[in-house]
Amino acid sequence: MAPKQPKGEYIETDTGNKVSRRSLISGTQNIILGGRTVIQADVIIRGDLSRTLPSNPTPSGSAPAASNHVAVAIGRYSFISTGSILRPPAKLHRGVYSYLPLKIGDNVFVGPGCIIEAASIGNNVWIGKGAVLGKMVIVKDGVRILEGAVVPAGMVVGVGSVVAGKPARVVGEVGVGWEGLNGRELWKNTTG
After folding, report:
1. CA–CA separation, 94 vs 147, rounded Å?
2. Which of 33, 85, 103, 171 is the least crowded, having the fewest Cβ atoms under 10 Å away?
3. Dihedral of CA 116/161/76/71: which sign?
4. pTM assigned to the model
5. How far apart are CA 64 and CA 24, in angstroms?
6. What gap in Å lies between CA 49 and CA 123, rounded to an integer?
7. What are the angstrom distances between the C-alpha of 26 and each of 32, 34, 129?
8. Which tens digits make up the pLDDT trace of 28-58?
């Protein structure tokens, strides 16, 4: 019998995603990774917090149609750093507490120790260490959120903005030529 190969830090999926064995991912059936995404150690992704179908049938008497149960969707070449927490935003609507999907675009860098509860994060976004994105935040493409920023619930951050502060506000623009994260290089350099 051949000796077992030593287990590395990361599990690599068929689509090239690298997920740390020390991350905590709940509700994997409700999480979509776009490919070549890196999820480091001690990251918590709450895919178990997804929309549920109503228990009563529709007015026509038939069962309700199946809905999209995606809780967290992460695009290609994104990088989620150690100790970050990703959970879908929730809101109270007509007396029912409901979770909405968290959508993260391509080439997104989430720094260490971030808490993300946004509704949407665009492409080529850089989120600095310890940043907090509140419920239902929408971050457009090409945004840079500086270290320690606390983006308040419901804020919409425009294309190419630089955001900082507690509470966060737009403090500038990223400038011409800023492309944010080189996700391919980070993905290639992640081994384990």
Report:
1. 36
2. 171
3. positive
4. 0.83
5. 32
6. 24
7. 12, 18, 23
8. 999 999 989 999 999 999 999 877 655 555 5
